[in-house]
Every structure is written in C-alpha cells, then in structure tokens.
TrEMBL record:
This is D-aminopeptidase. The keyword Protein biosynthesis does not apply. Gene3D superfamilies: L-amino peptidase D-ALA esterase/amidase. Belongs to the peptidase S58 family. One of its GO terms (molecular function) is aminopeptidase activity.
Length: 374
C-alpha cells in the first residue's frame, strides 16, 4: 500500500490556469484519498477511496451529480445519485469484478457508523466505480475484498498518490501503463476564488490517439512500435506494437471524479460533470463503443444533514458565472490523465503481460514536452 507517487517529477502543466499547492484533488478543502495496492505476480489491482470530508457522509451528505458519457460500465449507486443529488458514502474505485465486494464493504462501514440504517432509517447507497484491469491483473481471481476497502479508507490523507497505485495498479491507458491521475485548478467565479480538483482512473484509448497538450505523441510512438525490431524495458512491448493501429476499436474505461469548493447545487454539478468530457477528448479519446466513461462531480461547500426537514443552502454561484469552473474542470481532467501516464511505472502481470510507462517508452519525446510547472 502506498500514498506516494512512483515518480517524483510532476507532469507538464497543461493550459494557463494555475494549480493548487498540492496539484491534486486534495486541494479542495476536506477531500482526502487513500489507496490499497495489490501487486504480486498475476494480481495487479487494488482499491482507491475518495472521502468528500472527514466526517460521516451518511449523516452529512454532500451534493453531487454524474454524467454518463458512454455507459459501457458496471458501476453501483448512480441511479440514486441521479435521483437525489447527494453522496452518502465515500467514493470507491476498483476493478470490474471487485464492485460487489467493495459495495458490501461500504454498506458494512455505514452500518457500523449508523446502526439504524436499514431498520428505523432507509438503506444506504454504496457508490463504486470500476474499470477492467484484466490485461495485467488476474481479474477472475476475485482478489479484492472488504479488507482492502477498509485499508484504503484508513489510509485516506491529503498526500495523494498517482500512477500504478490502488485501483490504478492494473490499468492501461493508450496501450501504455495507466492508473490514477490527479490535478487541480484555481479560478475566479462570481467574484471569489474557487478550486476544482480531479482524480481519474485512466484505462482507455489506443496508442495512436494519444495527445498531450496538443502534441500528437501517440502517432510517433505507434510508428516506432510498428517498426520496432527489438523490445526491452526501455521500448514499447510486442503487445503495444501489435495493438498500435488507429482502426482497432477503443476499449477500456475512465472514471473522472471532480470536486470543488464552489457552492453549487446538484443541477449545476451535473453541468460541471459533463465538462469532464472536454478534458477527456483533448487527450485523444472518442468515447469508443466498449469504453465506460463516467464523470461525477461533488461540492464540499455545504452538507445535507440526514433526516433534516429543511436544508439551508449557501448563496450559489449563478449559472452565468460558471464558465471559469467549466474551464477548470476540463483542464483538471486533461491534466489528471497526463498525470496518470506520467506517474505510472511499468508493470508486468498476468501471463507475462506488460505495460510500459510513458516515461520508459519515450524518454526522448517526454523531454520535448513542456517543462513542468514548479
């Protein structure tokens, strides 16, 4: 289990909006993230947990909304979020076949904190998102358990790791090593400074599509892969070379979690979550048929107490003042995807399958990208 980046060097800064001091989703006050990583032989998987605040999210719910950009996914809990516009558990990320175990773990944790759930009180809505890490991970082993959720939950802090950690351990992105990515942006909206942070679970894309800050890096890598005669740890693998054709269908998924301290209601958060698609598109994705692309946005500006007869909202940002937040969302998601690629280490997993990191694949091309913002 790790809460430290594999790479100490930050990814190139995308766009002109400033990042928060941490450059992660934890720049949004109150948000913390924990990972539990399974990395042994054919088991390359894990769990990541995002806590919207340090309290009990069932007792003090936060406003939220989701946008399903392409629905080839097996997440749990989205129907109630769509209906009620709140979160009442932490957000959990894992592999596709781990969803059931993690949902049960969330339910048990909520019952421990609130023994009246399911009896005098309504049941709890677990919220679990997934991507298929079956290329690197033996997903049929059903290795993810309740214990791994608990470990990730207990590890939650503002020291947020990126790369091949937690749920991102076995993920692939643009035929390279993918995983967890983080970013934040600070903008002025309605006369005040607000932070928008993003965390992604990146497991999508074909290599020739990869675009970083407008540079078609994937095309060059695909051409190299197609002409490669030798393969080693510093080059692309045979698997990547075989799949580096532009006409091969895009498969995989991405989960994009967007947090903000701007006071928005669920309807406005739905609008904000949909702008995650703009950041995703900038990296080269076309939301392919077999890709599950889902974005969820929540606000930490206020909570909704469980069972309250009335809810007092703070003054909300007016809709016509939301453009800076939309821009921050798109930039944060784009940056977080680049961060996932930049921070990941190369990983060998099931049946010798290997995904090479971006930095190992093309160290010369990586140096041509923008100098990271210090």
């Amino acid at each position: 289990m790790s809460n430290a980046n594999y790479s100490g060097e930050r990814a190139p800064h995308i766009g002109t909006l400033p990042a928060g001091p941490l450059g992660t989703i934890a720049d949004v006050e109150g948000v913390s993230v924990g990972h539990c990583t399974l990395a042994e032989g054919a088991l390359q998987t894990g769990v990541s947990v995002i806590r919207p605040h340090r309290g009990d999210p069932f007792a003090d719910k936060v406003p939220a909304a989701a946008s399903v950009i392409n629905g080839f996914g097996k997440s749990v809990g989205l129907v109630q979020v769509e209906e009620l516009g709140t979160l009442e558990t932490p957000i959990a990320l894992t592999n596709t076949f781990g969803v059931g175990a993690i949902a049960q773990a969330q339910i048990r944790a909520a019952i421990r904190a609130n023994p009246r759930i399911g009896r005098e009180w309504p049941t709890v809505n677990p919220l679990v998102f997934e991507c298929n890490d079956g290329y690197l991970n033996d997903i049929q082993a059903l290795a993810v358990t309740e214990q791994h959720f608990n470990e990730a939950f207990d590890a939650a802090s503002t020291d947020v790791a990126s790369g091949a950690v937690g749920a991102g351990r076995g993920m692939s992105c643009f035929d390279l090593k993918g995983g967890i990515g983080n970013a934040s942006r600070v903008v002025n909206a309605a006369g005040r400074a607000y932070t928008v942070g993003a965390l992604v679970l990146a497991n999508f894309g074909r290599l020739p599509m990869l675009t970083i800050d407008g540079t078609p890096l994937g095309r060059v890598l695909a051409q190299r892969a197609a002409g490669a005669t030798t393969v080693n740890a510093a080059n692309v693998t045979h698997a990547a070379a075989a799949s580096a054709t532009a006409d091969k269908p895009e498969q995989g998924s991405i989960i994009m979690i967007v947090a903000t301290d701007a006071p928005l209601d669920a309807r406005q958060l739905k609008r904000l979550s949909s702008r995650a698609a703009a950041g995703l598109a900038r990296t080269g994705s076309v939301y392919g048929h077999g890709s599950g692309d889902i974005a969820l946005a929540f606000s930490t500006a206020y909570t909704v107490p469980h069972g309250a007869d009335r809810v007092t909202l703070p003054p909300l940002v007016a809709d016509h003042c939301m453009d800076p937040l939309f821009r921050a969302c798109a930039d944060s998601v784009e940056q977080a995807i680049v961060d996932a690629l930049w921070s990941a280490e190369s990983v060998t997993g099931r049946d010798g399958h290997r995904r090479v990191s971006l930095r190992d694949s093309a160290p010369d091309l990586v140096q041509l990208l923008k100098t990271p913002e210090q």
